[in-house]
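User: Second chain of the day. Same drill as before.
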Amino acid sequence: MTALQAAPSPSALQKNTPDSAANSAPDTPPALQLACRSEAGTAALAQRLARGLQEAAPQGAFIALRGGLGAGKTTFTRYLLRALGVAGRIKSPTYAVMEPHETPSGLAVFHFDFYRFSDPAEWEDAGLRDAFAAPALKLAEWPQQAGGLLPVPDLDVLIAPEEGSAAEDSALQARRITLTAATPLGRRLLNTLDLHTLESF
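Assistant: Same format as last time:
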């Protein structure tokens, strides 16, 4: 079995410091922070997020994925798309900027990578305005490279190696994943994750 297919053990995901809307200051976005101890934990979180998207955001959402080179943004996206039922090859859009997909339910998915994005004119030339205006699931790696062209994400996902984790094999590397909601839809997604992920492990 691959890590994606395997059912994670209860220790695959660890609740760390979730902040609910009720416990947060009014100007502090609600967030969940989780320690994924292996690739299986990362896959399990992606599976739970996919379930949350299907329930809370059937018309799509905008998720920004942040983290350094090699942090696991594309890997997390692949797990998420597979969990949503996307078939076929899932390529990194580093050079194409955008790769389109579709879920079995017919929901359009646009996977962006703005790492090499440098010319705002490319926004129009590549049809990115239309893609972001459409009802779809938008997943954007390196969103900071697009500056103010992007709308506010519903959910911001920050992926970083766990402090002290130095495994050469990325599949064994622990990661700290912080999910921050910036919109009411993002808050609904976090609430769904809280139920499906945190109380299940």
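The first strand starts at residue 13 and ends at 15.

User: Great, on to the next one.
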